[in-house]
Amino acid sequence: MSSNEERLTPEQKELVAIGASVGAGCLPCTSFHFKFSRKVGIEVARMLSAAVEAEDVVGDARARLSEHVREELGPEAKPVELSGLDSELAALGAAITANSLPNIRRHMIRASEWGLSGAQLADAIGVAERVQQKAAEGHIRETERFLEQFGAKLADDDADGDLCGADCGCNTKETTDVL
Prior knowledge:
This protein is mostly helical.
């Protein structure tokens, strides 16, 4: 695509969607976008290369986060063994924000086995959801600021509403097919 074109091509949009699906850790979205990418003419090798690139970014982000955690808590901080419930609460929060349904289910069951009630599970899910939303909002806000340096703004319209809308694997029967 030349720098003069106004919009991404369908193939380019799908490459972004593959990267975003891998980055979000969403199995159904990834499956959906691989299928949709075939429909717009992207070869399997190109899809795999896009997914590998996204995996590299995810790995870099995890390494940076790990370094940040240790810097924030200081060199004197040493991990301790958590109680079973504490461990499950932390794991459940991570599973929710990592968009991993198999892990969400596993850690919800384990947390309930440690005595968490349905209402307490709902509280935990609500906390993780708010953290995930705030993190996404903050990152989009900062991304928009950076985008302004390129003389552009995010579009207000929903021109790509069909790209990852009601037909996306996260919103269809495909979710259970993949998991």
